[in-house]
Amino acid sequence: MNVKPASEAIISFQGVTKQYEGDPAVLKDVSFEIERGKFYTLLGPSGCGKTTILRLIAGFTEPTEGRIYFNGKVINHIPANKRQVNTVFQDYALFPHLNVFENVAFGLRIKKLKEAEIKEKVLEALRFVNLVGYENREINEMSGGQRQRVAIARAIVNRPEIILLDEPLSALDLKLRTEMQVELRELQRRLGITFIFVTHDQEEALAMSDEIFVLSEGVIQQSGTPMDIYDEPINRFVADFIGESNIVAGRMTQDFLVEFAGKTFDCVDQGLQPNEPVDIVIRPEDLEITRPEDGKLQVKVEAQLFRGVHFEIQCIDDAGNKWLVHSTRRADVGEAIGLTFDPEAIHVMRFNETEEEFDRRLEAYS
Ligand SMILES: Nc1ncnc2c1ncn2[C@@H]1O[C@H](COP(=O)(O)OP(=O)(O)OP(=O)(O)O)[C@@H](O)[C@H]1O
Ligand SMILES: [Mg+2]
């Protein structure tokens, strides 16, 4: 597939495949577009190809097939140092023998800018990341969060068009990590630079992104806003990877009627074949506990865990399906309870449907 990218796309991948000799392809015919000024996240398990996509954008490696566009021009063979892209690496890759100022100034010195200009730019970058006053500190005198900020200052000092961030928060403890998530997001808004951020942490992706690409085994499974992806996972992989889910096997009886757990339920889905086998997803927070006789499903409580904000209750129905419930109400192990849910809470997913097939099916019905 080689379609010219939309004019507002800053980066566009068209049918990009990356294969190392003798190995199966790491990226398989990947196409997507990145719009200017937004915060994008590549999300997926280890080895799915996230870093490979960043390396292709940065110019550290070339695609085996397909085209990569930057502002509408093919850049497959443009070397890394000619691209308007900067990378923040997981280990920050700071120079331990240089102080904070010189770490940030490094690229500017290579470009042989005048001393006064270097000073002005470095101080402006340090102001952006709240590190004014730390110019003379050695890197080994800085905390993890401060080093992180130095790495970001170094990436923004040249005002690149795109900043690539490869799991930049994974070395930080949970509290600092949450703070840095907010800080990074704020920084991106203030700078207006396009950020492409890599993580395998789904909560981080949901919290930070304008758009998420969910990857598995070198294929983009789904792309969309955090809410799109959370509310309408397109297949079993995405549903399982994003948030906690109940996934059970079912069958589409006809439009707006679906069968699972031995019963038939109203749903909001249409456009599948009559009796087509499907995967059903219901989020744990969409299940409500009732008396057994008032429930759409009758289940038995197998385990209960207090999670601070809610109880996490594991149940099993007569057909042997497990159901996870998040509820502010407690239920005791061994208790028989009912579960109820709205038709909108049932997400019906065609087996292994790709994003393109899903879009075509929706279009046919709108
Ligand atoms: N230079 C290389 N030669 C051969 N195989 C490679 C090379 N670089 C990466 N790979 C393979 O490509 C696949 C994707 O790697 P990549 O680094 O993109 O994964 P990732 O999604 O970033 O994973 P992680 O979350 O562990 O960082 C892996 O199977 C990896 O072993
Ligand atoms: Mg990686």
TrEMBL record:
Keywords assigned: ATP-binding, Cell membrane, Membrane, Nucleotide-binding, Translocase, Transport
A GO MF term: ATP binding
Instruction: Please name one Pfam family that this protein belongs to.
Output: ABC_tran
Superkingdom of this entry's organism?
Answer: Bacteria
| Entry keyword annotation includes Transport | yes
Q: Which InterPro entries match?
A: AAA+_ATPase, ABC_SmlMolc_Importer, ABC_transporter-like_ATP-bd, ABC_transporter-like_CS, Mo/tungstate-bd_C_term_dom, P-loop_NTPase, PotA_ATP-bd, Transp-assoc_OB_typ2
Ranges of residues in domain ABC transporter = 11-242
Query: Does the record's keyword annotation contain ATP-binding?
Result: yes
Instruction: From the UniProt record, list the coiled-coil ranges.
Output: none
The cross-references to CDD domains, in alphabetical order and at most eight, read: ABC_PotA_N
The record's SUPFAM superfamilies line, in alphabetical order, gives: MOP-like (SSF50331), P-loop containing nucleoside triphosphate hydrolases (SSF52540)
Q: Can you say what this protein is called? A: ABC transporter ATP-binding protein
- Record the organism: Paenibacillus lignilyticus
Q: What is the lineage of its organism?
A: Bacteria, Bacillati, Bacillota, Bacilli, Bacillales
